[in-house]
Input
Amino acid sequence: MLCATCHEKEATIHVTTVVGADEETVDLCEECAPPGFANLDLEKAEALSVIGKKCGFCSEKAYSGEMLVSGGAIYWCFDCGTELMSIVGELLKTEQPDLTQPGKEPVSLLSICSDSKFLAWSEAASRKSVQILKERRRQDGRDKDS
Output
């Protein structure tokens, strides 16, 4: 089978996209495939999958997840993920005000991501936001078993 892009080389990478009941497969050669596809570790990709996972807050079907520093993973549904990101935003505004004040010099994402102090704060803020959300859910009665 020839590559769907160049129509010259043998397709060795087959990418299948499933949306609802629709399924589409694109066959590509290594040169036409997006960077990294040729060396994609399927076992690592499968380990990151949220298929069959439950939200760590409400037990609904998970749609995303975050690897925590402790080596465990927590997954969340759309609603809990939205609330969790709101909490992270609150923490950012209160604990890292220099990054969120209007009128300040723009900060590059690259400089933030390479700043070891910010990365340490980010890990701590992730853990803290999970605890805050769990506590909010207990306090307002959304978690009856806690």
Q: What stands out?
A: Residues 64-139 form one domain. The beta strands are 13-19, 22-28, 64-67, 73-76. The chain has two domains: 1-40, 64-139.
